[in-house]
Amino acid sequence: MLQIQRIRQESEAVIEGLKKRGIDASKTVHALIKLDANRRAIRHEMEENQHRLNGLSKEIGDLFKSGLAQEANALKQETGTLKDAIKDLNDRVQLIATEEHDLLLSLPNVPHKSVKAGRDEKDNEEVKRVGTIPTLHEGAKPHWDLADQYDLIDFELGVKITGAGFPVYKNHGARLQRAMINFFLDENRAAGYTEYQVPHFVNAASGYGTGQLPDKEGQMYEMPLDGLYAIPTAEVPVTNMFRDEIVNAKEFPIKSTGYTPCFRREAGSYGKDVRGLNRLHQFDKVEIVSITHPDKSYDLLDEMVAHVAGLLDKLELPYRILRLCGGDAGFTSALTYDFEVYSAAQERWLEVSSVSNFETFQANRLKLRFKDEDGKSQLCHTLNGSAMALPRVLAALLENHQQEDGIRIPAGLVSYTGFDKIA
Question: What number of CA atoms fall less than 13 Å from residue 66's CA on the CB side?
Answer without folding.
Answer: 10
